[in-house]
């Protein structure tokens, strides 16, 4: 790794880059191929009410794992909690099949360090040190292209705390096991409920299609969420608030507010932030503490 890259926290070693690319391709391809099979299954057989219930429950739990777990807890330390809930959030976040926690955290922290500038890992405006010249190319790169061609964020620089902490380190090491569990649990629920056909239905809909849908909604925050929508007063980058993405991802689409106050546990407007409401609920139950709050005026709430 060159001295300049080391200073920026970017790993250029070809072996690491190929390994990172392979992990991303497999994480994307497995649920995507299952989603294609899900569409075929749905056309031929349809889906039962139970399959849709499994899909809805697994979608909501994984979205919480992304927003409350990976994003607000592990990346930004927006609140504190005890070991049991930390483990649950780590497992739910890993079930999104968006990479191990240490890598997810490192990429996101590098994104905040260089937001919409050179070396932002998934900006619609830059690839490394090269500006992107068209909106379409920017959307493709920030949505999915960066995972197939981008360099690796140095976990030892951006996620040293994740590597040290036993639970997040365990989840990172056992990423593929947790991915398998995420896909197979819906199938097990279907098998117990109604047999092998329901197991296949729940695997395809509640497993594969759920992950592919969440992949694309999450990536849309990186792409559309930095090109379309409103910006909060005083914003210094291109992050945007999107009502649609906020509704789909339980508050994570309030991206401009988040970039103004990245370690805030609650986004504004509060009524679009389901994940913020969940954190408040955990706080009232005594399961979360040291919850960070800000208002748009910039003063702690």
Can you count the helices? 14
- Which overall shape is indicated by the principal axes computed on the Cα atoms? globular
Calculate Rg over CA atoms: 19 Å
> What would you call the structural class?
mainly alpha
Q: How far do the termini sit from each other?
A: 43 Å
Give the total of beta strands: 6
Q: Which sheet architecture does the biggest sheet show?
A: 2 strands, antiparallel
Whole-number average pLDDT?
A: 95
Low-confidence segments, ≥5 residues, pLDDT <50? 297-301
How much of the residues is beta strand, in percent?
under 5%
- Give the strand order of the largest sheet, numbering strands 1, 2, ... along the chain: 1-5
Relative helix content: 55-70%
Keywords:
about 300 residues; mainly alpha; two-stranded antiparallel sheet; 14 helices; 6 strands; about 5% strand; globular
Q: What can you tell me about this protein's structure?
A:
- With 301 residues, the protein is mostly helical.
- The chain has a domain at 3-209.
- The chain is 64% helix and 4% strand.
- The chain contains 14 helices and six strands.
- The strands form three sheets. Strands 1-5 form a two-stranded antiparallel ribbon. Strands 2-6 form a two-stranded antiparallel ribbon. Strands 3-4 form a two-stranded antiparallel ribbon.
- Helix 3 (49-75) packs across helix 5 (101-113).
- The N and C termini lie far apart (43 Å).
- Residues 297-301 have low confidence and may be disordered.
